[in-house]
Specification:
Elements (H helix, E strand, L loop, with lengths): L3 H13 L16 H7 L4 H9 L6 H10 L32 E2 L8 E3 L5 E4 L18 E5 L5 E9 L1 E8 L8 H4 L7 E7 L2 E6 L2 E4 L9 E7 L4 E7 L4 E8 L6 E7 L4 E4 L12
Antiparallel strand pairs: 1-4, 2-3, 3-14, 4-13, 5-10, 5-14, 6-7, 6-13, 7-8, 8-9, 10-11, 11-12
């Protein structure tokens, strides 16, 4: 007798290969949680093999590809995908979506890090963290894990006044923001965010970016380590807005990081709400 779960999987797989009614942009990405619930029951390898044979994909199938791209035994490669239409600018970076975790061993003592290691906020209460050589002792900053040396993309929700940064592990940890703040030296790159106002800083050089009242509090970062490219985006309600790119040569693995002023917070975004965070 055919297992009823497998029957549902087959039905779900058939739906992945259909365009939903009224869909005009076949490759738009949506976070379709009902689809994800059904995906969790699928035979991953069987579905991967099926997906890799297809020439065109719809939005649900694209989401599924993002979930499956690191699955063991999957034959999926970029070269095997022939998208029916071009992805919106920045959306293709989702293929390199990288789960991250806030590293509490690096957190300034007034930065509260959630148990999930996804959310941090600058509070008035000392968090009484144990001593650690990686901790920022006087600057309200922290880093994430893992270090990155390939292509990676991540998104973060922010509120208040924050810096979204990328840094070498060797960045200075001792001293106040004027000494070890992200972007002040050659070892880090920073995007400052505050109420629609943005600026980028590297090696002490700050560049103000155009003001926008339509951009919400979510930023995105894309890194291509080998190509030496780092790009910052602001995410509006419709599509990513490219803010600035740095080009150069990276000599060490890159660690995402954040600086938060008092009352500010950041929260790492998952590709799906149900997705577990990266473990430090």
């Amino acid at each position: 007798m055919v297992d009823h779960r497998w029957r549902r999987c087959v039905q779900s797989r058939q739906r992945f290969c259909q365009s939903p009614p009224g869909e005009t942009e076949a490759t738009k990405v949506v976070y379709h949680h009902q689809v994800w619930s059904e995906c969790k029951m699928l035979s991953w390898k069987a579905l991967c093999d099926h997906v890799c044979e297809r020439r065109y994909i719809n939005k649900d199938l694209l989401l599924l590809l993002l979930v499956l791209k690191s699955t063991a035994g999957c034959k999926l490669t970029e070269e095997t995908l022939h998208l029916k239409t071009s992805l919106l600018q920045g959306k293709n970076h989702l293929y390199y979506f990288t789960p991250l975790a806030l590293n509490s061993n690096t957190a300034y003592r007034f930065l509260h890090v959630s148990e999930s290691s996804r959310r941090a906020s600058h509070v008035k209460e000392d968090q009484a963290y144990p001593a650690h050589p990686d901790r920022f002792d006087s600057c309200p900053q922290l880093l994430c894990s893992p270090g990155l040396s390939g292509r990676a993309y991540w998104e973060v929700d922010w509120s208040g006044a924050v810096q979204v940064a990328v840094s070498y592990r060797s960045v200075t940890r001792k001293g106040n923001s004027a000494v070890c703040g992200f972007g002040l030296g050659p070892e880090s790159w920073s995007l400052s965010c505050s109420r629609g106002r943005y600026s980028v800083t590297h090696n002490g050089k700050r560049t103000m970016l155009p003001y926008s009242s339509t951009i919400r509090g979510r930023a995105a970062v894309y890194v291509d380590f080998l190509a030496g490219r780092l790009s910052f985006y602001a995410l509006s309600s419709e599509e990513p807005v490219h803010l600035h790119s740095f080009s150069g040569t990276f000599t060490q693995p890159l660690f995402p990081g954040f600086q938060l002023l008092l009352g500010s917070s950041v929260e790492l975004c998952g590709l799906l709400e149900e997705e577990p965070p990266y473990s430090v």
